[in-house]
């Protein structure tokens, strides 16, 4: 099973996991179907300290960071999503007091919040005001030492069982803009004029109470005005949305994980080949988790993360919905049975599409933030500020080459189908061709994460150029791992300097037979990129003892190149078929051990998958940047098309998908180039490149279809990434089969998994 791994795990996570397994799961179905408040489970959550999760220890809480809190929420939701609702609304109310209350208010309320004595909730939404908070009508009038509050609040989680609410009201209804007349109050049950009108029946999210509250001249002490100053309530409420959206994302990940687990268990007992949809479920789930904890980590570092939290909420909630539907479909009619958790997930997931701002509103906010942050500048979403200095410097150097040297000529090179010889030479001078080659052999010795970033930057300018580098690096990676010192001296050192380029391709019908102390090759390899310009090829051949991988010089007698094959995209790379007619290779040309030729090929394939994923992210990034710029320059109906909601929805989805693809690619580098994670990254990134380039073309309209704009080139290049170095359909089938096989193996406990 694939999870987002973290290096340090708070011991609370293990306790929450045990609580979920031993107490929540066995009782969740009965509580949910009876729509009964889980008093016993809530009491246990209080014992675990969860009501004070984000309350500092100085006020009696646990003082957790947002990342750990998100993991708590995810773990709870894998058992019963409603439990997360109980603590989240409570936590949001506590955070308003923590960050914006007076010190007297903190001392008065926070210890009670932390102990669970004060059970919190949020009173924001009204019958006519949902995502548009500024449309509220609830009014608070000052009367001596009290405020008189009148209005109705809807969808109040903990409305019946809670007792201490953060309420937003108008203290100056005439203020312009309206948010300057809004104030936030702590309203406690027992104040005259507060009444629970009714509990709301819901599709899902049952067990936890969701109520309508009526405030009829409700008297609240002036001492409960948060911060003691009127007119700041809107800011107080909005400041918690980042944490709130991260919480919704974590909820969605937890429910999505539960839906995936149920599906995996169902398919593990089936004799049929697992459906490729299982691979997509695992990939989307991993991407959602990565986005969620990426945003949470930014929040913990006190960085601005309104855009990132919004992306996490959008992507994770849409993922949960998609996985719930897919799980129900793969279960067949059994998935609709009330005694199966699958139907509960199907009912629960729509809530995350709506909570903390509907996804449609979320998309418009993301699009506006993209325009505000990046305007028409390059580099949207690609900040490397959190990276190590050496990595940032290398990426910046390549970005400068791309912007200065590659971008001005790549369109003309593509039209002419010309090989970018000068650009390859410039990259050799920069050391990029030796990026993954150890320093002992003349390379830069970069880690694979930095390498992936470099390939992405290259692909922003030219996917063809990135492909030349990626093919070369795949051979270098295999040679660095399995080559002899003689092979490294003879081949790897010239590869590092760029004096010799190499390439490779999977498949073909090459057979190898012993010929004295060497080998003789017969057959053909599939078309290899850049074949006419390289010094040699990495070739896997069939032999009596198994497979053998050989380093074949291009000029070896018996090696014949076919004519260059015209292709849809990646023009200038000029793939050629390579035929072998009695080509004789010496024993020194065998890479690795004869009979185990699959090992160096697997190493090359691993880096090739990473290179394809990074190239796809770069192509998608370039197409997105083009669309973002064009949408602000092109006008329709009297305003830039970026102001039209249809375009905003597209831009938000494009940016969010690119970020998810980038995180998947980076995650694959942190697990020893794990084959399954690389498959996930390659599948998702290449699908994203296709989708984003097509959406960019839609935004450009007719211009995007012409060769005067680069969008049609991006679209053509994206097609190749769907099928090389491996086809996505085959990758999905292989990944699904491996996921099912892995689920049948005995589980090994690891505290670093959520």
Summary keywords:
754 residues; alpha+beta; 4-stranded antiparallel β-sheet; 4-stranded mixed β-sheet; 21 helices; 17 strands; 52% helix; elongated
Oligomer: single chain
- Identify low-pLDDT runs: 1-5, 750-754
Biggest sheet layout:
4 strands, antiparallel
**How far is the N terminus from the C terminus?**
12 Å
What count of helical segments does DSSP give?
A: 21
Tell me, rounded to a whole number, the average pLDDT: 94
What is the SS-derived class?
alpha+beta
Q: How helical, in percent, are the residues? A: 40-55%
Q: If you compute it from the alpha carbons, what radius of gyration comes out, rounded to the nearest whole angstrom?
A: 29 Å
Walk me through what this model shows.
The protein is α+β, with helices and mostly antiparallel strands. Helices cover 52% and strands 15% of the residues. The protein is built from 21 helices and 17 strands. It has a 4-stranded antiparallel beta sheet with strand order 2-3-7-6, covered by helices on one side. A hairpin with a 2-residue loop joins β16 and β17. α7 runs antiparallel to α8, α8 runs antiparallel to α9 and α9 runs antiparallel to α10. The termini are close together. 54% of the residues are buried. The N terminus and C terminus are likely disordered.
């Amino acid at each position: 099973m694939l999870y987002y791994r973290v290096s340090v795990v708070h011991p609370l996570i293990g306790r929450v996991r045990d609580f979920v397994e031993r107490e929540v799961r066995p009782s969740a179905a009965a509580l949910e179907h009876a729509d009964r408040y889980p008093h016993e489970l809530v009491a246990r959550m209080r014992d675990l300290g969860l009501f004070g999760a984000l309350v500092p220890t100085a006020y009696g809480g646990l003082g957790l960071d947002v990342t750990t809190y998100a993991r708590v929420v995810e773990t709870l939701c894998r058992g019963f999503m409603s439990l997360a609702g109980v603590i989240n609304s409570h936590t949001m109310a506590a955070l308003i007091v923590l960050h914006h209350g007076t010190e007297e208010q903190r001392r008065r309320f926070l210890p009670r919040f932390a102990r669970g004595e004060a059970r919190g909730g949020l009173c924001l939404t009204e019958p006519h005001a949902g995502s548009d908070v500024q449309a509220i009508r609830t009014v608070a009038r000052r009367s001596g030492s009290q405020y008189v509050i009148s209005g109705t609040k809807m969808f109040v989680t903990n409305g019946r069982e809670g007792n201490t609410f953060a309420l937003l009201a108008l203290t100056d209804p005439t203020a312009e803009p309206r948010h300057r007349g809004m104030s936030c109050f702590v309203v406690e049950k027992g104040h005259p004029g507060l009444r629970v009108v009714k509990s709301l029946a819901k599709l899902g999210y049952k067990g936890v109470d969701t109520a309508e509250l009526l405030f009829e001249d409700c008297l609240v002490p002036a001492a409960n005005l948060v911060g003691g100053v009127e007119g700041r309530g809107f800011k107080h409420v909005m400041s918690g949305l980042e944490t709130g959206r991260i919480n919704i994302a974590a909820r969605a990940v937890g429910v999505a994980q539960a839906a995936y687990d149920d599906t995996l268990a169902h398919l593990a007992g089936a004799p049929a080949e697992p459906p490729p949809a299982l691979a997509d479920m695992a990939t989307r789930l991993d991407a959602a988790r990565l986005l969620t904890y990426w945003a949470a980590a930014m929040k913990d570092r006190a960085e601005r993360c309104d855009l990132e939290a919004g992306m996490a909420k959008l992507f994770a909630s849409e993922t949960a919905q998609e996985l719930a539907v897919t799980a129900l479909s793969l279960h067949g009619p059994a998935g609709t049975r009330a005694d199966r958790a699958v139907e509960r997930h199907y009912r629960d997931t729509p809530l995350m599409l709506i909570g903390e701002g509907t996804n449609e509103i979320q998309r418009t906010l993301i699009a506006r933030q993209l325009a505000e942050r990046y305007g028409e500048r390059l580099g949207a979403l690609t900040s490397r500020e959190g990276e190590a200095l050496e990595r940032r410097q290398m990426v910046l150097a390549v970005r400068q080459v791309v912007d200065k040297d590659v971008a001005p000529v790549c369109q003309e090179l593509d039209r002419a189908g010309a090989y970018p010889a000068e650009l390859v030479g410039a990259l050799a001078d920069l050391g990029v061709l030796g990026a993954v080659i150890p320093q002992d052999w003349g390379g830069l010795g970069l880690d694979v994460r930095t390498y992936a970033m470099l390939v992405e930057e290259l692909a922003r300018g030219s996917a063809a150029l990135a492909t030349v580098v990626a093919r070369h690096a795949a051979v270098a990676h295999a040679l660095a791992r399995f080559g002899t010192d003689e092979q490294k001296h003879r081949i790897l050192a010239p590869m590092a300097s760029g004096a010799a380029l190499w390439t490779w391709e999977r498949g073909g019908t090459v057979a190898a037979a012993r010929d004295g102390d060497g080998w003789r090759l017969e057959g053909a390899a599939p078309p290899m990129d850049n074949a006419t310009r390289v010094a040699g090829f990495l070739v896997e051949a069939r032999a009596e003892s198994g497979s053998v991988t050989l380093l074949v010089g291009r000029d070896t007698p018996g090696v014949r190149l076919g004519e260059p094959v015209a292709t849809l995209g990646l023009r200038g790379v000029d793939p050629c078929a390579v035929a072998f007619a009695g080509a004789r290779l010496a024993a020194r040309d065998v890479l690795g051990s004869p009979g185990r030729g699959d090992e160096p090929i697997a190493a090359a394939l691993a880096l090739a998958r990473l290179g394809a994923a990074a190239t796809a992210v770069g192509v998608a990034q370039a197409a997105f940047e083009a669309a973002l710029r064009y949408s602000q320059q092109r006008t329709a109906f009297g305003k830039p098309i970026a102001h039209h909601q249809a375009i905003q929805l597209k831009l938000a989805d494009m940016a969010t998908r690119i970020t998810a693809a980038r995180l998947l690619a980076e995650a694959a580098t942190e697990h020893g180039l794990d084959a399954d994670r690389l498959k996930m990254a390659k599948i998702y990134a290449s699908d994203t490149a296709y989708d984003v380039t097509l959406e960019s073309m839609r935004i450009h309209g007719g211009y995007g279809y012409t060769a005067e704009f680069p969008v049609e080139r991006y679209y053509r290049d994206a097609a190749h990434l769907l099928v090389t170095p491996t086809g996505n359909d085959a990758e999905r089938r292989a990944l699904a089969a491996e996921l099912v096989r892995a689920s049948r193996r005995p589980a090994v406990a690891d505290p670093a998994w959520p």
